[in-house]
Amino acid sequence: MNISIIIPARNEEKLLPECLKSIQNSIKISNLSVEIVVVADCCKDRTIDIAEEYGCKVYKVHFSSRSKSRNYGFSKTNGDFLVFLDADTMISNDFLKKTIDLLCEYPVVWYLQQTLERSLLADFYFKTINYLSNFRPTFSPAIGVRANYFKESDGFNESLKSYEDYYFLHKAWKNRATKFCRANVRTSMRRVIKFGLYKATLYFILAWLNPVEFEWRPINV
């Protein structure tokens, strides 16, 4: 089984090394064939150098869009299974093994989330997300998907500047093609902080409570 991990990255020199180290550890445990594709979007720091040092396939683009970067990364892969992973996210050692086990049954999976930051607010935020994930998908810094399903679903919606992960997962969920994976990922709250906790939480609640309406409106927070 071949797995392609696609990482969109823009100026990620601080967190990308830990992300790639966690992938290497998971590869050792799983003993799977894995290629790592880093799509460096408008990078002005050492992101590209770091990715190359870790043996990744690196593509330089100027999209300013995670959706476009992810879709472009897919076009450069050879794997039967895909993992879309944010550059500020670290995966658990059993991540790849559990991902493959579930993708053999379900076309799309999303994951249990924890925070990189040490704060009660961050812990509460992600505990809420994990609880809601027992019922239907939330946004996710990691998404596992069969390559053939991703191609047939037309990938990520490139008109969206954010929440494109939730949009993709919700479409799969409506088709009963998803499963919540208990493999752990640790990710940063920096985007939530950037948008503002109130605004990010409000958008998340609106999307989760009324996804049919939400997916037809601009999601450009």
Structural notes for this entry:
The chain has 221 residues and is an alpha/beta fold. It is built from ten helices and eight strands. Strands 3-2-1-4-7-6-8-5 form an eight-stranded mixed β-sheet, sandwiched between helices. Strand 1, helix 1 and strand 2 form a beta-alpha-beta unit. The longest helix has 15 residues. The protein is globular. The model has no long low-confidence stretch (mean pLDDT 89).
SSE map:
Elements: E1 2-9, H1 16-30, E2 33-41, H2 47-53, E3 57-61, H3 66-75, E4 81-85, E5 89-91, H4 95-103, E6 108-115, H5 120-132, E7 142-146, H6 147-152, H7 164-174, E8 178-187, H8 190-195, H9 197-209, H10 211-214
Parallel strand pairs: 1-2, 1-4, 2-3, 6-8
Antiparallel strand pairs: 4-7, 5-8, 6-7
